[in-house]
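Ops channel
N.P.: pipeline sanity check, posting one input/output pair.
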């Protein structure tokens, strides 16, 4: 087994993980990043453009905060919103990467080429002395006798799946959200293992009902785009039209999703798509005679929604000692409320939360007394042999998450049906999944997808209203009684509880649902 020791161990090498690493290294900590793929070259950010809110102090910032609070259905917090914008603006002011603002559009949003952005972040982390271990998926957290997280274990994909173990003074989960292998550009690495590992150690989750964010992608046959083209498929489409050629009203992409959910075809103009992508789509028959392309709904899950690990304060600590979180792996309901993270907010959150988590993890590693004892946290999908095919579990999860009728338009009946099916599969995932090498990695991934789907289902069933991206066909309106946030957790038995929020988010008051 390959073993090492460090001050701060970061699971995940996307934007949030890299900002975390730079922040922790600046605080004097020894930092290691482990990534299941290649840090800075995988994940949804590398596909197309990425946007970040970058607003100087003044009236524009105050207006942006008011607008975000309203779009979030009143579930966000003004202080959190203000702190995110302030931290992001401060960090970007000294960031050396290339950036530009479009001459038209929102001047408060910074647009970056996603691939160039994460490559520059990776380079900056390496220059800061961070050690990056690519193709090192983590499988379990390590805890000491007090339950403090003190490291992680996993395998080396490029080295015959040999095990590795890293002891650390603090661990940061920056593994991103979960898109349930929907096929959305770059999300094949976002399968929820970070959330599962944290929950197995006792962490709580927040806002899991806001896991129903959808995007749009071109309708393709069985032709898979090459990597150079696939990058462009993450680009936002232009004007959307119905079958009659009438422009769809409303906000992007809500109008299109409603039409698709009703069984209609929706088409997009490709005026915001690179020429290479338009040419490739034309060669493969995806473009109509008028130059438009049919689009489909693709679930982006908790990546664009606000669901993830619950945080206890601005230091981005989770409810487990020694464990921190950043970026899409965190619950962002205190920032996004019930909205999705479009308009640059998810990008800004990656910068701010990564900076806060890195500094806090470095401080914790300095004062935390480290012992010699550490044990892996037991978990699902870790048996020595597999008695069921993980593809069956993945297929069941996708059946109950990907279709619009399951996640876009929910009801008590459909949610109860999904929960019953998913719950019945959990014992099998817990005790019958496993194996060695690549088989164990796939088993762990299947167990994580199932766990995330169950948390999302239970939370969505509990919130009996429509608010933001959470839609209930049996409760089509927002209710003042539900201007609360939800926390959830549990593995064998999932629990959900309300959190009544006031001005102070760091000390929530909880009541049973």
């Amino acid at each position: 087994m390959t073993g090492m020791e460090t001050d701060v161990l970061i699971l995940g090498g996307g934007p949030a993980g890299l900002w975390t690493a730079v922040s922790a290294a600046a605080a004097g900590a020894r930092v290691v990043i482990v990534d299941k793929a290649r840090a800075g070259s995988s994940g949804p950010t590398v596909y197309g453009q990425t946007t970040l809110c970058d607003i100087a102090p003044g009236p524009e910032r105050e207006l942006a905060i008011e607008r975000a609070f309203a779009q979030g259905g009143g579930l966000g917090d003004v202080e959190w919103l203000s702190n995110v914008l302030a931290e992001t603006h401060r960090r970007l002011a000294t960031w050396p990467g290339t950036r530009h603002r479009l001459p038209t559009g929102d001047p408060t949003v910074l647009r970056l080429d996603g691939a160039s952005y994460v490559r520059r972040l990776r380079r900056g982390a390496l220059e800061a002395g961070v050690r990056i271990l690519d193709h090192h998926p983590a499988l379990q957290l390590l805890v000491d006798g007090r339950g403090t997280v003190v490291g992680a274990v996993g395998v080396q994909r490029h080295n015959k799946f040999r095990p590795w173990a890293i002891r650390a003074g603090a661990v940061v989960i920056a593994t991103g959200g979960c898109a349930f292998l929907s096929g959305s550009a770059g999300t094949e690495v976002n399968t929820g293992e970070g959330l599962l590992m944290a929950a197995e150690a006792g962490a709580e989750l927040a806002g899991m009902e806001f896991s129903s964010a959808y995007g749009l992608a071109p309708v393709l046959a069985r032709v898979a785009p090459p990597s150079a083209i696939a990058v462009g498929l993450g680009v936002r489409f232009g004007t959307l039209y119905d079958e009659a050629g009438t422009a769809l009203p409303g906000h992007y992409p809500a109008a299109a999703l409603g039409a698709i959910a009703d069984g209609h075809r929706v088409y997009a103009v490709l005026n915001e798509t690179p020429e290479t992508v338009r040419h490739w789509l034309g060669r493969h028959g995806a473009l109509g005679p008028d130059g438009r392309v049919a689009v489909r709904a693709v679930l982006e899950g908790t990546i664009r929604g606000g669901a993830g690990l619950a945080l206890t304060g601005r230091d981005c600590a989770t409810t487990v000692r020694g464990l921190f979180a950043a970026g899409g792996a965190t619950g962002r309901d205190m920032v996004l409320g019930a909205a999705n993270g479009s308009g640059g907010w998810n990008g800004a959150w990656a910068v701010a939360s990564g900076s806060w988590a890195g500094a806090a993890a470095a401080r914790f590693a300095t004062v935390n007394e480290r012992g010699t004892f550490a044990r892996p946290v037991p978990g699902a999908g870790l048996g020595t042999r597999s008695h069921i095919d993980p593809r069956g579990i993945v297929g069941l999860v996708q059946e109950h998450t990907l279709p619009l009728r399951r996640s876009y338009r929910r009801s008590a009946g459909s949610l109860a049906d999904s929960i019953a099916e998913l719950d019945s599969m959990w014992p099998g995932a817990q005790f019958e999944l496993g194996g060695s090498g690549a088989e164990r990695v796939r088993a762990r991934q299947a167990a994580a997808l199932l766990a995330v789907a169950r948390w999302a289902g239970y939370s969505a069933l509990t919130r009996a209203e429509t608010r933001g991206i959470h839609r209930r066909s049996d409760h089509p309106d927002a209710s003042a009684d539900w201007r609360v946030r939800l926390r959830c957790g549990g593995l064998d038995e999932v629990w959900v509880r309300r959190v009544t929020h006031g001005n102070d988010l760091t000390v929530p008051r909880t009541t049973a649902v």
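N.P.: looks fine end to end. Residues 4 and 166 are 5 Å apart (CA to CA).
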